[in-house]
Design a protein that fits this description.
The protein is of the alpha/beta class and 306 residues long. It has one domain: NAD(P)-binding Rossmann-like Domain (Rossmann fold). The protein is built from 9 helices and 8 strands. It has helices at 28-39, 51-64, 80-93, 120-135, 137-141, 174-198, 223-236, 240-252, 286-300, and strands at 19-23, 43-48, 69-74, 99-102, 147-151, 204-208, 261-264, 274-276. It holds the Pfam family adh_short. It comes from Streptomyces boluensis.
């Protein structure tokens, strides 16, 4: 028996004529995803918190892909006002959005509150993307075969949605808050697909995770982990390029169906070729999906017109 061919970036189909918005595109997974989509011919909007880093990322992409069609968009996902303003500017710039890659995130930060009063990791990783997607839904509807890809983590398996304390006001653990936010990402992707399907929409909502990839998220790690990084990374971390591949496949593979989850297919899902993976048990509670959605609407004041 032969073995199935491993999916690579070369398998991504032509994206010419399509517009992609990639959050967190100034470094790491987002930069690699934006580069791959630009190489495939898409017009790519780099949605970034720091415009200078965005310009540097655009220059790097252009150096690799001289024909790249790029725009830098200011977006701070930890601020619901910034999300609203960015969505308005994207409406002015784009007639449609074919791909929305909800990639940006923070990991294991110290306890912090956003300008809106929310716990930083939950706000940035989940609430910001929930609000952004809702505010861009009409532009996604204007595209013939739009997709929303939301990047979770294999650590979602350690998460629990505490509906009575989503903002960790009673107690804070950087690890618990991160796992909850990544579980929320996955639940959002699945619940969005359910609602889109019920509404008869052709938009596909898909989830992905990179495995264990070396990215800029480590800047927020505790000091001991940062010091161990040079020893740890070569042994255990895959490159940001390899970590990007499940997202790229979820965004471009014609065979992808809404509600699916893509990640590395190795034994522990920390490395391996990109393909279908199974969500953890905690991510499959549809009752929590719905309650998290309702809470997210209340916390962001964004109602989806579905």
């Amino acid at each position: 028996m032969g073995t199935a061919k491993k999916w690579t970036a070369a398998d991504a189909p032509d994206q010419r004529g399509r517009t992609a918005v990639v959050t967190g595109a100034s470094s790491g997974l987002g930069l690699e995803t934006a580069t791959a989509l630009a190489r495939a011919g898409a017009r790519v909007v780099l949605a970034v918190r720091d415009p200078d880093r965005g310009a540097t990322a655009a220059a790097r992409i252009t150096a690799e892909v001289p024909t790249a069609d790029l725009t830098v968009q200011l977006l701070d996902l930890s601020s619901l006002t910034s999300v609203r303003d960015a969505a308005k500017e994207l409406h002015d710039r784009c007639a449609h959005i074919d791909l929305l890659i909800n990639n940006a995130g923070v990991m294991w930060t110290g306890e912090a509150r956003t300008v809106d009063g929310h716990e930083l990791q939950f706000a940035t990783n989940h609430l910001g993307h929930f609000a952004l997607t809702g505010r861009l839904l009409d532009l996604l509807r204007a595209a013939p075969e739009a997709r929303v890809v939301t990047v979770s983590s294999y650590l979602h398996r350690l998460g629990r949605i505490d509906l009575d304390d989503l903002d960790a006001e009673r107690r804070y653990s950087r690890y618990r808050a991160y796992a909850q936010s990544k579980l929320a990402n996955l639940m959002f992707a699945v619940e969005l697909q359910r609602r889109l399907q019920e509404a008869g929409s052709g938009i596909r909502s898909v989830a992905a995770h990179p495995g264990l990839a070396g990215t800029g998220l480590g800047r927020d790690f505790p000091a001991a982990l940062r010091l161990a990084g040079p020893l740890f990374a070569p042994l255990f971390l895959r490159s940001a390029y390899d970590g990007m591949l499940p997202t790229l496949r979820a965004a471009t593979d014609p065979g992808v169906r809404g509600g699916e989850f893509y990640g590395p297919q190795g034994l522990t899902e920390t490395r391996g070729a990109p393909g279908l993976v199974r969500a953890g048990r905690s991510a499959r509670d549809t009752g929590v999906h719905r309650r998290l959605w309702q809470a997210s609407e209340q916390l962001t004041d964004v109602l989806y017109p579905l």
